[in-house]
Write a structure and sequence with these properties.
Layout: H1 2-9, H2 12-19, H3 22-43, E1 52-53, H4 57-80, H5 103-132, E2 145-146, H6 148-180, H7 185-213
Antiparallel strand pairs: 1-2
Length: about 210
């Protein structure tokens, strides 16, 4: 009876995230595909999607490779967050088996990554749209040569939407983990509102700094 009444008190978002694990799988899949077909492709010397040149191509290749590894790791982390052993350490682990993992240990880095993804995507799409519309100009001092229009189009139509999508998948997975790990409903509800406000403010700040600093 208590579980039924508690479920009825949940809003749609709370019910949805509590029962949904598919965002973790979709997020992992998209992370894996992006790492392999974009980052590792660029690390191998591929140029599609990179309308620019750098003074040291080897440095760019290495950066793409490291980014690919980091993205794959983050994808696997999403899967880990929906598994029981992300809440309680398995009993077969010596000394610490059966220990409950404090939710913040995994939630904090996941929420930071989510905020980064969403901020990157939102600010990137807004500023690249303004750049294409000749409303603002942006300098790219890191590049030896760059086709600004093509770069903006790739960002607007491919890269930044990926960041936003991955941010949404990571956020939904984090919400599922928070509820599965026993975070109180009131804490979860107000924490979600506060987090969204913070992400909005950060996105606004970053976007404004790019627009008025360009």
């Amino acid at each position: 009876m208590n579980k039924v009444s508690a479920t009825k008190r949940m809003n749609f978002f709370e019910r949805f995230t509590k029962s949904s694990v598919w965002p973790a799988y979709i997020g992992c899949l998209f992370a894996f595909m992006y790492a392999v077909f974009v980052r590792f492709y660029h690390a191998a010397g591929g140029t599609i999607g990179m309308p620019f040149k750098m003074d040291d191509p080897a440095l760019l290749n290495m950066a793409s490779y490291i980014a690919g590894l980091a993205i794959m790791f983050c994808g696997f982390v999403l899967i880990a967050l929906i598994k029981p052993w992300s809440i309680i350490i398995p009993l077969k682990i010596p000394l610490i088996g059966g220990t409950k993992i404090h939710p913040l240990i995994l939630l904090v880095p996941t929420l930071i990554a989510t905020a980064f993804l969403l901020t990157h995507g939102v600010s990137g799409m807004i500023t690249k749209a303004l750049l294409l519309g000749d409303v603002i100009t942006i300098d790219f001092p890191a590049f030896a040569e760059v086709d600004v229009q093509k770069l903006a189009l790739w960002d607007l139509l491919f890269y930044e939407p990926w960041f936003i999508f991955m941010g949404i998948m990571a956020g939904l997975t984090a919400a599922h983990y928070a509820q599965a790990s026993g975070v109180r409903q009131s804490t979860f509800r107000w924490g979600t509102v506060l987090y969204l406000i913070i992400v909005f403010l950060i996105s606004t700040l970053v976007t404004s700094s790019i627009i008025f600093g360009s």
